[in-house]
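so my prof wants the structure for this chain in the tokens format not the other one, which i didnt know existed until like an hour ago. anyway here's the sequence
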Amino acid sequence: MNIKITGSGSYIPNLKVTNQDFSNHKFLNEDGSVFNSSNDVITHKFVEITGIQERRYAEEGMVNSDMAFIAAKKAIENSKIDPETLDYIIFAHNYGDIKHNSIQSDTVPSLATRVKHLLRIQNPKCVAYDVLFGCPGWIEGVIQAQAFIKAGMAKKCLVIGSETLSRVVDKHDRDSMIYSDGAGATVIEATNDEGGILAHESATFAFDEAKYLFFGESYNKELNSDVCYIKMYGRKIYEFALNNVPKAMKQCLDNSGIAINQVKKILIHQANEKMDEAIIQRFYKLYKQSVPEGIMPMSIHELGNSSVATVPTLYDLLLNEKIENQSINKGDVILFASVGAGMNINAIVYRM
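here's what i got, hopefully its the right format
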């Protein structure tokens, strides 16, 4: 028995927000003082560091679970399974359903339950629950699905990664330009087909690192201080990721028994282009090898950082040949990897 992704789907919102759309924003420092550089200079440096030229925001009438439902429906159709045969729906997110121009997160019932309802699944033994694991949430959901299947508790699982970060950004914080919205979903099944999940690795660093990403007040001190927004210590996260993610990737690959030169693609969380490139450089340096050309497909330039959705949407886009000059084929070995709030790190070695 092998455990494989048998179907995938994604939802990329239609609303494009370019860097030019931030030209009239009033960016402030953490202490509330006016940022010295012009917005043109800010956005120019932003592109140099992150690679992000535009991002997608959810439409006004849509919430997180709506996007997830669309992606999930596509994944189920792609897998050709009967949704009533699903044993688990595992929904990775961070902030629940937040309506446009609202400040309140809604998580009851769980978003997984909402997706099950929208899919009109009647089977009560299809268990639906949410995972809060930061940006690595979808990968962690896949690891959990694998565990359920290995334990004989499930045969089919739906794993979703979906987020509307545009609803929790502080518009006065330059970091708000990084974030975006999106949804990706996959069906994970036990199968006799060759390949599947070969190894996985997970870790939580919380001694000094727990609050590198957090919920904090706006940089605009005139606003209600009781309203919180996504915040991060970017430099600390960058250094943490470079020191720890390559090691976790190596541990995962070594456990799989796959040689480094057999890896065809690395699908890494689309957090920051420069950071991702540095992680891959350090990963290959651990094997005393140079980075192969085209090893790391990227979607961040057009889609931004949609947190838990970046890896499953990238996978789905790659499968459907929507990433220029990139493709994956049956038998290819893929390394999934992510880092995010926690601080959490995980990786999966997977054979198509």
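also thought this was worth mentioning. Helices lie at 39-50, 64-79, 111-118, 137-150, 234-256, 273-286, 300-303, 310-319.
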